[in-house]
Write a structure and sequence with these properties.
Largest sheet: 5 strands, antiparallel
CATH architecture of the domain at 51-159: 2-Layer Sandwich
CATH class of the domain at 51-159: Alpha Beta
Low-confidence stretches: 1-6, 11-21, 166-176
Distance between the termini: 98 Å
CATH topology of the domain at 51-159: Alpha-Beta Plaits
Strand order of the largest sheet: 14-13-12-11-15
Structural class: alpha+beta
CATH superfamily of the domain at 51-159: NusG, N-terminal domain
């Protein structure tokens, strides 16, 4: 039988101690985008790329409610036809998973986080602004005129549900800024009150439904309108 000396045993133990533990590698999926991450042997979560750090800035585009998918497809087709791939990078409809009851059963379904809105990541200039703004179904950008307001980091990460694996809290989801404000005067574009002007007195939480005080026969009458039925003065 071969004897193993104490020195040899210690050498083997040292080699075992110095052995490198391979990190665990995995992926997470956020709005159809896949992100890679690694857990080191001490379970410290590794860095996950934020959508905010990608090229371009994120802007909120308002659409007719119910036309979000069609508008997204129209913009993607426009990008290809006009070769704008290096200026308009992503078009995202923010979605979330919720539970619903169908036929007496609890099922998980996806729903739009902000009906009537989608996000566009772009290097915005006169060309891309005009291209997106003229897309059928688009009513405008969130922001003022030709200077839409890009979303800050916390809103991008909150809306797109970015989280680091192992983190205790997920960033809170935030809603985009509204196109209009209470007491703002607007013009009605369509319907029985087309070309009337009035002041916004109430607004739904998502900014889609407005109550506008329209002067009819000398009296201010509240009229409920969709945001797509009015325009700025």
């Amino acid at each position: 039988m071969t004897d193993i000396s104490t020195d040899s045993t210690e050498a083997i133990e040292d080699e075992a101690t110095e052995a490198v533990v391979e990190p665990l590698v995995g992926t997470i999926e956020v709005n159809s985008e896949r992100y890679e991450f690694e857990f080191e042997d001490d379970d410290e979560p590794a860095y996950v790329e934020s959508p905010y750090d990608r090229p371009g800035r994120w802007y909120v585009v308002h659409t007719y409610s119910g036309y979000e998918n069609k508008v997204r497809d129209n913009i993607l087709r426009l990008i290809q036809n006009r070769e704008l791939e290096e200026k308009i990078y992503e078009v995202v409809i923010p979605m979330e998973k919720v539970f619903d009851f169908k036929a007496g059963r609890k099922v998980e379904v996806e729903k739009k986080v902000f009906p009537g809105y989608l996000l566009v990541r772009s290097d915005l200039d006169d060309e891309t602004w005009a291209a997106i703004r003229s897309t059928p179904g688009v009513t405008g950008f969130v922001g003022a005129g030709h200077s839409p307001t890009p979303l800050p980091r916390h809103e991008v990460e909150g809306i797109l549900h970015v989280e680091v694996p192992g983190a205790e809290e997920r960033p809170k989801r935030t809603r985009p800024q509204h196109l209009y404000a209470i007491e703002e005067t607007v013009r009605v574009k369509e319907g029985p009150f087309a070309d009337f002007t009035g002041q916004i007195s109430e607004m739904s939480d998502d900014g889609i439904k407005l109550k506008v005080l329209v002067n009819i026969f000398g009296r201010e009458t509240p009229v409920e309108l969709d945001v797509s039925q009015v325009s700025k003065l």
